[in-house]
Amino acid sequence: MYKPLIYVAVVFFLTGCQEKTVADLIVTNANIITVDESFSSADAFAVADGKFLAVGSEKDILSEYQTKNRVDAGGKTIVPGLIDGHCHFYNLGIFMQKVDLVGTKSYKEVLDRVVEFQKDGKSDFIIGRGWDQNDWDNKEYPTRKELDRLFPETPVALTRIDGHAMLANKAALDLAGINGETKIEGGEILIQGGKPTGVLVDNAMNLVEAVIPTPDRDTNIKSLMDAQQKCFSLGLTTVSDAGLGQEVIELIDSLQKAQSLKMRVYAMVSATKENLDHYLSAGTIKTDRLNVSSFKVYADGALGSRGAVLKESYSDRENHFGAMVTPLETLGQIASRLSKSDFQMNTHAIGDSANAFVLKTYAQNLKSQTNRRWRIEHAQVVSPDDFLYFTEILPSIQPTHATSDMYWAEDRLGAERIKGAYAFKELLDINGRVVLGTDFPVEKVDPMLTFYAAVARQDLNGYPEGGFQIENGLSREETLKGMTIWAAYGNFEEKEKGSIEPGKFADFVILDKNIMEIDIDDVPETKVLDTYLGGEKVY
Fold first, then answer.
1. From 92, 327, 414, 519, which residue has the greatest number of CB atoms within 10 Å?
2. Preceding omega of 464 cis (within 30 degrees of 0)
């Protein structure tokens, strides 16, 4: 009668002595928002070989796994590594080496910053970026007059915050061969009294950019490393860089292989003829940290510089419709080539006319092809009849554009057309997913600002009360998905990142607040405490 009791005791003893699986890292006592299919929560996970081993309750994890590296999260919120679905990672680094003009409230402040930057005479060609005349009392474009006086011999090129307009002084214009007779397709050289004012829009900027000294390898490396540190500090573990050339892509690849650049990069190749010929012949590239399988194409310019192409004239500039950056025929040819390849096509389209043309071009070239995930980058102004095209085409949108542009967007578009602008919820309802990003350095890098703008539809001053066209705001769950799993989907990477699940890369972020529950106005103040990439603490 005692044998069964002895058997139970022996089984219990042997079971209790079973060796636990060794993990590289175990995180416990956490509020883990997994962003899995059911948007479930957990309080612990184990990591090995750079990937999540198991996710669940602390009791279950500790009963199955052991480690020498255990992190007590102190009850803090953990979310998947954040993904910026549309940004300019390399350009952010380059921008950090230039005159920072972001936030200037007047042209005088722009000039003051340039003078301060150049006080030691450190640059033979002064480059800056970030001004926005819409933030000034005088919202007219500046002219080069003061720049000519301050820098009569040193070329100066100051790019507008959206990257679609530039102010250049006479020295820079002369170097580029620009005068009152110069013509350019897909852009504009503003003229006053028969002479260039110094403002160049869209393709006209290329003339000056062609004479700006090319950054050397050391500058490029420093730029990439500076951008990485900035992004890690804000919880970004993957960046989708919208427009890179072969040289920078190869540098990123070499730095990643040397383990100095750890950031995961989804590199959209700039769709120049040379790049198209090279990569369509060479094929896609896919490693754990680098994905080269898409091309970035420009349809039109930006709304702020009136380069976006509209079906009807701008409301604040009679008989002006914007300008296509890439000719319609060329766009069609690129779409045709890419439809026969493994590459994704991601096209910048801002105005309703540009969106309509690109959407219809996609539809004509893809026809019966499925799951190509071709994207419209920005999808900023869409006509009512064109929204349905987004059933198959993925919207890649930037919530902070809405809150930055709302002060002047209706002036450009008028009261009726503005209703189809920044329509994030409508795009989500039609497609089922939206890819969220920032377009940094056009906007600030901080993903918490993306989250706040998507949900509250307000700027940091709480304007406008109730939110800008709040019916197109996203829920918190939708927003976090757009910054994680849906952004991964947009890059064909949802099986390896974007959620905290076994088998995926152990990319995660520890926050000081629970962004799913705190007052939405407190989200912009939320800080990243730690950033992990592949189970390694990188910030």
1. 92
2. yes
